[in-house]
Amino acid sequence: MRVSVLLQITDDEGVARAAEPVAVFEKATERPEDVGLSISEGKTLMTAVQRRIVESQVASWTARHRNCQACGARQRSKGNYPLIFRTLYGDVPLAGLRLHRCPCQGDHGPATTSPLCAFFPKHIAPERLYLETRWSSLVPYAAAAGLMADILPIASGANATTLRDHTLRVAARAEAELGEERPCFIDGCPAEWAKLPIPEGRIVVGLDGGYVRNWEEKKTNFELIVGRSIPEDRAPRYVGMVHGYDRKPKRRLFEMLKSQGLQANQDVTFLTDGGEEVRALTELVTPIAEHVLDWFHITMRITVLGQFAKGVGQRNEAIGAWLASELDRIKWKLWHGNGHGARELINDFETDLADLDVDYPNLRKFITLAREFGVYIASNLASLINYGERYRSGERISSAFVEATVNAVVSKRFAKKQQMQWTRRGAHLLLQTRTRTLDGTLRSTFERWHPGMANDNRGPADHAAVA
Predict the structure, then answer these.
(1) 161-175 per-position pLDDT tens digit
(2) CA separation for the pair 23, 4 (Å, rounded)
(3) Helices 339-354 and 317-335, axial angle in degrees (round to 10)
(4) What is the pLDDT of residues 88-107, one digit of tens each?
(5) pTM, whole model, 2 decimals?
(6) Is residue 428's pLDDT more than 80?
(7) Torsions phi, psi of 10, nearest 5?
(8) Rounded to an integer, what distance in angstroms lies between the CA atom of residue 72 and that of residue 258?
(9) pLDDT at residue 466 above 60?
(10) Which residues contact 127 (CB under 8 A, 6 or more apart)?
(11) Of 45, 225, 289, 369, most Cβ neighbours within 10 A?
């Protein structure tokens, strides 16, 4: 059979143009692969339709903007120049009209102007830029380029370098919208905060770090800080930055909380691994905030010490059992928030280890780790809470969910265990688009920049689910 697809366009005045064929297919019906349009036929059809529509729209827009905006006089043409408009359904070649400067402008401004440059200065459709950014945030640039070339009729620009440039351009635009960095984001006074409506509940923010390979210094790594904010009444959000490169870390964290309805009278709990840089990031962001050393990192260190105690037990069972019981006492003190008591027990534990007379080859390393654990608890003494009481009340005491966040944000895209290498700028900007993609806010960002994109009926939850 022969399938002919006709296209009819009705202009803004309501005049219908003659229908014209845009694609003709000869279809057999012998095998399953003959049924319906193939990928190639679908690309051919969408390319032809897109070209006719774009050409008609551009001609209409150019005609409406041919006259001078100041005096209304018709501007003289200086000819056309070739232009490629990159869309989701093909790259459309256009003849861009160039106009002489209107006499009413005198010698002010450029001698010639192009209406199309004002219409789409980047020569790329926002929908295509959104899809490139979204896919590049989920999979490597080369894989995203290959995916787009497989299913979309894109003749040019479907390569890793182009997608990388477009994605980082989007991230840079979002970065430019961030306000100035401040050492403190606490405004107003407690009397004003008391007048605010009662918030729905506590916001829990987990922050942790991950490392990726450095492209500029091949044998080194640099740290990424990522986190997840989980309010009780709103969807969670992600945040990410390159430690030491980001110049607005507090502003970034504050804006994430603000987008979730943060109020000055709202409790915020920051669960971290106890690192100084992360602790400094969370200070003075919101009035009612507590910095909590999460239980996951405490038990992880105690578990390591317990493994060494078992090693001692293989040489001397009585001493090994005694060391294990001492670690249980330390853990019990920490679980009930008795930091000072735990610190005393840790000091005694270090002293006992130093005086231990046992033939254990890793004893020196055991002593070093015990000493480091003591320093770790001492430096985070103010961040210890009654974990048992908090746990029984159903509240979070561990940032284990942030470990999953590190895997989702860093490992699955930045391949921290592989040979993939990154510049600090490239990693930081990609983090901004990846976090927005994962929590479903990338689409809303594009809709704010390009309100016409809001015609898509899919909501942020749908985009987050697909991500």
Answers:
(1) 999 999 999 999 999
(2) 6
(3) 160
(4) 998 999 988 888 888 888 77
(5) 0.84
(6) yes
(7) -105, 125
(8) 46
(9) no
(10) 87, 88, 453
(11) 225
Which two tokens mark 367? 């002593």
Q: Looking at this protein, which amino acid is placed at residue 445?
A: T
Picking from 318, 331, 314, 322, the residue whose alpha carbon sits closest to that of residue 377 is: 331
CB 36 within 8 A of CB 58: no
Is residue 207 a contact partner of residue 259, using CB atoms and an 8 Å limit? no
Cα angle: 249, vertex 429, 181; to 5 degrees = 25
Q: Residue 402 is which amino acid?
A: V
Question: Encoding tokens for residue 266?
Answer: 């709202």
User: E strands, 32-138, where?
Assistant: 77-87, 90-100, 112-113
Length of the chain: 467
> Which two three-digit tokens encode residue 430?
């990609």
Reported as a pLDDT band with limits 50, 70 and 90, residue 463 is low
The encoded tokens of residue 109 equal 């401004």
With beta carbons less than 8 A apart as the criterion, state whether 56 and 9 touch.
yes
Show the tokens assigned to 75. 């501007």
Cα(341)–Cα(324) distance, integer angstroms: 17
pLDDT digit string (tens) for 201-224?
889 999 988 889 999 988 899 999
Has residue 418 got a pLDDT over 80?
Answer: no
